[in-house]
Specification:
It is a single chain. By secondary structure, the chain is an alpha/beta fold. Helix 1 packs parallel to helix 8 and helix 4 packs antiparallel against helix 5.
Length: 365
């Protein structure tokens, strides 16, 4: 798997309830007091994808293996977290190890749940957490950049590009803007990620609403949507309580329960897919009598890189990829029909994998 989304937010906004429902593990303590999450809870879930079931049916696969994504439930952050307040830097480190941030915001009134700021203002909450992350990045960079600057001015060719990237981030952070807004060339993106900045990570705002607002949102969630649009972040509306109730119902009763709330599918399905999209990932498939399996790869990956996801030897000895687009595979009833229709392709090392490709790799080691 190798991909993790860190679930962050202020205390008592529904993070652990959401995590428990998402993983259906019940391992994260959900309680109405601050810092009920003491250690980060980690779980991984299948990415829902109806295409995999369709492929398995056509290929008569004995086994179905979905792709998975990891989630880390991190303790609630408070003002001063960057200076060690609350559970402070211990949990900033947990965020740093995540690939993306799911920022849960309380968008419901009442409910008998105490809010750490004694008011319901999700935009203010978002700014509080973002400020702490920026302060942490600022402190980290200011500590690291001075020795790097000396090396760069001394003619160290390896230090110079790293110093330049740090300075770009520092300039932006000092203006009160997150590091993800730094303008980068394609060549700078990978080394910039290696700086380990909290505010470099992509963000999805998760609006935790009451049951009545689950289908269409409310005034709070609409304010968050405006903030997300301004920042270039994502946003999704979900009711953690509904998702919690769903996990406690028999499977046969879930659709009826969702329909009564005017919902087409569990919000967690949308959230998981949104997290997958947030990380810039796509899915390709392998399908046969033994199994139909979904595989994860980054957008823009070429065929040898996709092959390496299955086994590193596949990339080393890559010869070619046999490719059928998902729609063609389904329309023509599988590989044999796609071949007859001229929809079966042989692709080389430069082929960029498309979401939904059904692939088979030829290699020689």
């Amino acid at each position: 798997m190798g991909f993790k989304c860190g679930i962050v937010g202020l205390p008592n906004i529904g993070k652990s309830t959401l995590f428990n429902a998402m993983t259906q593990a019940g391992s994260a303590e959900a309680a109405n007091y601050m810092f009920s999450t003491v250690q980060p809870n980690v779980g991984d879930v299948a990415v829902p994808d109806s295409r995999l079931d369709a492929l398995a049916e056509i290929a008569k696969s004995a086994k179905i293996v979905p792709t998975r994504i990891g989630f880390v439930d991190i303790a609630g952050l408070v003002r001063g977290a960057s200076k060690g307040e609350g559970l402070g830097n211990q949990f900033l480190a947990a965020i740093r190890e995540s690939d993306a941030i799911l920022h849960v915001l309380r968008c419901f009134e009442g409910g008998g749940v105490t809010h750490v700021e004694s008011k319901i203002d999700p935009v203010s909450d978002a700014e509080t957490v973002e400020t702490e992350l920026m302060l942490s990045d600022l402190e980290s960079l200011e500590r690291r950049i001075l020795p790097l600057e000396k090396r760069a001015k001394g003619g160290d060719k390896e230090a110079e590009p790293q110093y330049r990237l740090m300075q770009k981030a520092l300039d932006l952070l000092r203006e009160g803007l997150p590091a993800r807004q730094v303008q980068l060339t394609p060549e700078e993106r990978a080394p910039f990620r290696q700086l380990g900045l909290l505010t470099e990570k992509p963000v999805l705002y998760v609006c935790n609403v009451d049951e009545a607002s689950a289908a269409n949102g409310n005034g709070h969630s609409r304010r968050v949507a405006e903030l997300a649009k301004k920042e270039g972040a994502g946003t999704i509306v979900i009711s953690a309580r509904i998702e919690e109730e769903l996990t406690q119902l028999p499977t046969a009763e879930r659709d009826e329960f969702l329909a009564s709330l005017e919902l087409k599918e569990p919000g967690l399905n949308r959230l998981i897919r949104a997290g997958y999209d947030l990380l810039g990932l796509i899915t390709f498939f392998t399908a046969g009598p033994k199994e139909a399996r979904a595989w994860t790869v980054g957008k823009g990956a070429r065929a040898p890189r996709a092959a390496s996801v299955i086994h590193s030897d596949f990339e080393k000895g890559f010869i070619r990829a046999e490719v059928i687009a998902y729609d063609d595979y389904v329309a023509h009833g599988g590989e044999a029909g796609a071949r007859e229709a001229g929809k079966f392709r042989l692709e080389g090392k430069e082929y960029v994998v498309k979401d939904g490709d059904v692939m088979h790799f030829r290699f020689n080691v």
